[in-house]
Amino acid sequence: MLFRSASRARAGSIFSSWPRHCASPEQIATNKTVVTRFLDGVPTTPAAITARSLLLATDYIPHSPRLAAFNANNRVSGRQGWVQAVEAGVLRPAPGPARTRDLLIAQCDFVSVVWKQVLPDPDNASRTFEAFTFDTFRLQNGQLAEHWDGTTR
Predict the structure, then answer these.
(1) In whole angstroms, what is the distance from residue 71 CA to residue 50 CA?
(2) Which of 38, 74, 96, 138 could serve as 146's disulfide partner, Cβ 3.0–4.6 Å?
(3) Which pairing describes strands 110-121 and 99-107: parallel, antiparallel, or unpaired?
(4) Alpha helices, DSSP H only, in the chain?
(5) CA atoms within 13 Å, Cβ hemisphere of 113
(6) Do the Cβ atoms of 88 and 13 come closer than 8 Å?
(7) Hey, is 34 helix, strand or coil?
(8) Tens digits of per-residue pLDDT, 51-108?
């Protein structure tokens, strides 16, 4: 469970402004669909970038260090910051083996995706191991309002 209750949020924390109720089962299913649509491939054409950007709230908040740095350096934010970062090639997939969606979990206004990647073992080139990372989104009014991931740079 991500949070037992938004009402337990501390005053002044980032959680204090979140709704104090959970989404209906229908809304949770819709939220999963929105996240899946957003994460399916990297948009490469102007029309695809525009269509994908409409899934983001205008005041979208990314917590990924790469996008936050891009936004700060270019004095942009929200949906427009994401669009400019995609157009600049900042958000292209990392090199290396493809990752697959291993788990899709939703609760209240949050949807998390766990990704699996099979990587070469750095200690034994003849072996591999499974590595996992994540993306978590907070949705508001059917749009992606906030995003966290396992990226450190």
Answers:
(1) 18
(2) 138
(3) antiparallel
(4) 25-39, 46-53, 65-74, 78-87
(5) 21
(6) no
(7) helix
(8) 999 999 999 999 988 898 999 999 999 999 999 999 998 887 666 778 889 999 999 9
Query: Looking at the chain, which runs of residues are DSSP E strands?
Result: 56-62, 99-107, 110-121, 124-140, 143-149
Tell me which residue has tokens 């491939």: 41
Rounded Cα distance, 105 and 2, in Å: 10
CB neighbour list of residue 107: distance below 8 Å, 6 or more residues apart: 1, 2, 3, 22, 28
Does the pTM surpass 0.90? The reply is no
Structure-token pair, residue 153: 């740079």
Length of the chain: 153
| Model confidence pLDDT, tens digit, residues 118-146 | 989 999 999 999 999 899 999 999 999 99
Q: Both tokens of residue 122?
A: 């750095």
Kindly report the backbone phi and psi dihedral angles of residue 127, in degrees, each rounded to the nearest multiple of 5, phi listed first.
-120, 160
pLDDT at 147 > cutoff 80: yes
- Give the Cβ contact number of residue 128 at 10 Å: 13
- Structure tokens given for 40: 């399916």
